[in-house]
Design goal:
single chain; 7 strands; globular; 30% helix; three-stranded parallel β-sheet; 3 helices; two-stranded antiparallel sheet; alpha/beta
């Protein structure tokens, strides 16, 4: 296991890499908030330039395991967005005959690809959406989640909203 100092150094290094990707290349890091429940947010989700993703089930109920809390770096509430992260069908490797195996898995790491896919759809529809403008689009089009405790869902469930064409 890492010592406290080694962990702090790793977090600092990761933050530098992410900050460079964001400022120099307009990358939008989308990260899992963690599975430690209310009051706990994991790095890198609490970094200033990352979208932190929490998990909801298919009834839009926040998963008990889904992390939330205040970023120790920015003082802002996390997560920023939610994705489906409970009982998600997922690939799980291959058997000895090289056939794909699937399972249903739960976690904020299952919700994060959902949000990333929504971001990819927006970026494919409009190449000018990068970095902060893509972040803004994701949060502006999110579906607010009613009935959730304050600070548990950010802007809501990420969703792709097709623009009307003239």
């Amino acid at each position: 296991t890492l010592s406290r100092r080694e962990y702090a150094d790793a977090v600092t290094g990761l933050r530098r890499v992410i900050d460079t990707l964001v400022t120099d290349f307009a990358v939008l890091p989308i990260t899992a908030v963690g599975n430690d429940g209310k009051g706990k947010v994991r790095a890198p989700a609490y970094f200033p330039h990352t979208i932190a993703v929490g998990a909801v089930d298919y009834m839009l109920k926040v998963a008990d395991f889904s992390g939330s809390g205040t970023s120790p770096m920015t003082g802002e509430a996390e997560p920023n967005l939610m994705g489906y992260g409970v009982d998600v069908p997922s690939s799980y490797g291959r058997d000895r005959h090289n056939r794909s195996l699937y399972r249903t898995l739960s976690g904020t790491s299952m919700a994060t690809p959902y949000v990333t896919g929504i971001a990819a759809l927006y970026a494919a529809a409009d190449a000018s959406l990068q970095g902060q403008t893509l972040w803004d689009k994701l949060t502006q089009t999110a579906l607010p989640i009613a009935g959730a405790a304050t600070g548990r869902t950010g802007s809501g469930l990420a969703r792709f909203v097709k623009e009307a064409t003239e």
